[in-house]
Amino acid sequence: MTTTRNDRRTLRGTVTSDSMQKSITVLVERTFRHLKYGKFVRRHKKYMAHDEKSEAHVGDLVEIASTRPLSKNKRWRLVRVMTESKFEQGAVHGGDVASHLEEVTE
Known about the structure:
By secondary structure, this protein is mainly beta. The chain contains one helix and five strands. The chain has one helix at residues 97-105; strands at residues 10-17, 23-33, 40-50, 61-66, 74-83.
């Protein structure tokens, strides 16, 4: 059996930081059913992804795919920007990012 390069794991999440050159931080949220209680639980994790053309901005919904290690923390690359954010770049300051991201993801 031969595997193709396109059989890579892909995730969807929201960009939380784009202040680095050619890098973004993506917050991926997953839901699962608790084994004992049956309640749905939400968990999130942040991934560093490579953004060659710097096309993703804070609040954008993006798709990332796994790739070879590009740096100490980067193992993902940007595939595409699915939805652009509602607010302009630079309009959000420091601590306000979390509240704006909640509005975008809802």
